Fold this protein.
Amino acid sequence: MTTVQKIIDDKAEIKVHTVSANETVLTALQIMDEANTGSILVAENEKIIGIFTERDYARQGEIKGRYAKDTLVRDVMTSQMVMIRPETTLQECAELMRQYRVRHLPVIENDHVIGVVSIRRLAEELLKEQKGTIVELENYILGTGYGE
């Protein structure tokens, strides 16, 4: 079974984006835009205390009368995060995302965040894994390329 470690290893560069809990939502959104990511980890005194996502903004932001330039990240972030380790399987990630209704899972190793697995990246890896299995089965059934 494929693990999160493969996703971490496959990425040429992994940058964990963070924002201070006391920054504005607008600042967080600008960082997310520049990084082309749907989430950002929230830090306070160099400790990760939550995650802020596009979904948090959609549900807790302007729809509730809060404006990005006037609202602090701490007021709309999700503080209860589901964390995973590099040895977590892709299937376990999918189950955690379903169970907790989240789309981003921070990856922890030695008490440090080393990456974030998004639902998009997870889906890409699961699809690759399934395509490989299908090709192996086709080769076995047709007697071609199997065991060569």
Notes: The mean pLDDT is 88. The radius of gyration is 19 Å.
